[in-house]
Amino acid sequence: MSTLQKILGSLKNGRRTLRPFASIAVKRSQGTSSQIQMNPEKDTKLTIPATHTSSSEHEQEDHKYEENIKKNILENSLQFVPKTGWSVESLSAGAKAAGYPTITHGLFPNGGGDLVHYFNVRCNEQLVDAMKTWPKADLQEKVPAKFVENAIYQRLLMIDPYKSTWPKAMAIQTLPNNVPNCLATLLSLVDDICYHSGDRSVDFNWYMRRVGVAGIYKAAELFYLTDSSQDCNATRNFIASRIRDAQLIQTALNLSPVAAAPQTLTAAFTTAKNMLGINTLK
Length: 282
Description:
The protein is mainly α. The protein has two domains: 1-16 and 58-108, no CATH class; 112-275. It has helices at residues 3-11, 55-77, 81-84, 88-97, 112-131, 145-157, 166-173, 179-196, 205-225, 233-255, 257-275, and strands at residues 22-27, 33-38, 45-49. A three-stranded antiparallel beta sheet has the order 1-2-3, with no helix packed on it. A hairpin with a 5-residue loop joins strand 1 (22-27) and strand 2. Helix 9 (205-225) runs antiparallel to helix 10 and helix 10 (233-255) packs antiparallel against helix 11 (257-275). It starts with a helix and ends in a 7-residue tail after the last helix. Pathway: Cofactor biosynthesis; ubiquinone biosynthesis. Belongs to the COQ9 family. GO terms for molecular function: lipid binding. One of its GO terms (cellular component) is mitochondrial inner membrane. Residues 66-96 form the Ubiquinone biosynthesis protein COQ9 HTH domain.
């Protein structure tokens, strides 16, 4: 059992946990080992053959145990984000709500960055589950524009409960320690969107499409934060417009790669800035 298990096991819900049995390892003359369990309530002894597990199995169990605790704390922390933001305060409150000491927030070295990352991963998984149920019969293009539009729009709507705090979350993601996770979840998102929309390309267009969708998503994310229209219809229209622009660029590349090169480089540079959250709406 790891130190973390011992500490959390004794402190959970603010009280120590007492074990009813004490185990003592002994060796017999035949060279085999066993455990004698002593029941303090009865003056009897039971001999049980010892079970042996490898150190790697112990490590896996400890890792799984710790990951489950982290996930539980992060999930409980989200309810406090509207009030205390993507912060250590939310993590402490989440730990308390999960039945652990508030100091357990020390499990998250990146603080609010770990909470933002958890939220992004969870939303991406929910979007994938939703896209799997969307009809595919009308998918004629390699990457159907309407499918991509719906996917980006639905993903943005998942931010709605935390919309007022999301600018801070975007700023947190640009910190050096958080950039790798930010890019990983963004690229995972656009790859899932392209894949479930029917994209099975293995050529250079595979990269072009995903970079394009990433740029559209980040630009739409910025626009969404300023959108006060009913049902965020302005955001949906913005997404559709950006997708049309991307289709025009792709058409230009296919027809005249040399002539389209300057525009493509400019678009790629803008996309890179969008992915890092550097661009802002004017």
